[in-house]
Specification:
Layout (H helix, E strand, L loop, with lengths): L3 H23 L2 H4 L2 E2 L2 E2 H10 L1 H5 L13 H4 L11 H20 L11 H7 L5 H25 L7
Antiparallel strand pairs: 1-2
Helix pairs in contact: 1-6, 1-8, 3-6, 3-8
Amino acid sequence: MRDPVIESFRAEFNRFHDLLLKQVEIFPDGLWNKKAGGYVVWQQFFHTFACVEFFALPEGASSKQTLYPADVVMFKQTPEKGPSKDEVRQLAASMKDMVNAFLDGQSTATLADKHEVLSRYRNQHATNQNAIVSLIRHACYHLGCCDAILREHGLPGVH
């Protein structure tokens, strides 16, 4: 039987992940490569999905995201050509698998354990629960950003 606390986190992540994918589907091709909300639209999605590794990639494992370097993922550079929606969907699927593997290794008892990557980034002790909540919050934040872009262009948001 799966841990109900972990399953509640999984359900929240899946909800926002699925809404982000719905946004990818409905974003007009004419906006996909345009700057809106401070960044190129595709880069918002790419960043959101690729950053899953920050929270869920096992310590010491190699990145699964190979399309763009970290400077593109973190908005420091924008290449002339962005990924297709299919490439973003493939990245999203890969990252969802990673989150599920990470959550499969968690239980209520491990939530207070130290999350090494987040602890190093914050330069203070961070737990697995901090990582899970941050992962969900990050997806929710970018979902809101992209919904605002849709609305600014006269389109309905998804959330």
